[in-house]
Amino acid sequence: MDEIINFFKSHDIKSIGLGCFGPIDLNTNSPTYGHITNTPKQAWKNYNILGTLKGHFNIPIGFDTDVNAAALGEATFGSAKGIKNVLYITVGTGIGAGALVNGELVHGLLHPEMGHIFIRKHPDDLFPGICPYHHDCLEGLASGKA
């Protein structure tokens, strides 16, 4: 975070758009709004990433999931420009998806954790999966780490 803060302080920026891996708390009424919550990435668990940035910058800071930020970027500047309904899926250390429906980012009680959808394994597949929460969800079976 120190390197990120120093980088942005060395530039004349007017706002920041923070697309963050999760799970994150997007509920503006929650006491942990802006936190990375119960992530398997132990060094980031319960980290107030938005509050840390706000403590260093007195500018507008947008906050959403990394995949929603990517979906919005594609709909604004990229291959989905001008399209109102967009689904952006990424496969890496996890599996994530961001979505726009009628031009609006999808949110709910939490953000959609599409990588944690349960899928049926082949009966002969004995791999237990790597997701620390569900083991054999989509992310646990098909992410880069799996």
Query: How much beta, percentage-wise?
Result: 15-25%
In angstroms, what separates the terminal alpha carbons? 28 Å
At CATH's second level, what is the architecture?
Answer: 2-Layer Sandwich
Mean pLDDT metric: 92
* CA radius of gyration: 17 Å
**Helical residues, percent:** 10-25%
Main sheet characteristics: 3 strands, antiparallel
**What is the CATH class designation?**
Alpha Beta
SS field, number of helical segments:
4
Overall form: globular
**Tally of distinct domains:** 1
Topology summary:
Layout: H1 2-9, E1 16-20, E2 35-36, E3 47-48, H2 49-54, E4 61-65, H3 66-77, E5 86-91, E6 95-101, E7 104-105, H4 138-142
Parallel strand pairs: 1-4
Antiparallel strand pairs: 2-3, 5-6, 6-7
Report what the structure shows:
The chain is globular and about 55 Å long. The protein is built from four helices and seven strands. The protein has helices at residues 2-9, 49-54, 66-77, 138-142; strands at residues 16-20, 35-36, 47-48, 61-65, 86-91, 95-101, 104-105. The chain has a single domain, classed as 2-Layer Sandwich (Nucleotidyltransferase, domain 5). The strands form three sheets. A three-stranded antiparallel sheet has the order 5-6-7. A two-stranded parallel ribbon has the order 1-4. It has 146 residues and is an alpha+beta fold. Helices cover 21% and strands 20% of the residues. β6 and β7 form a beta hairpin.
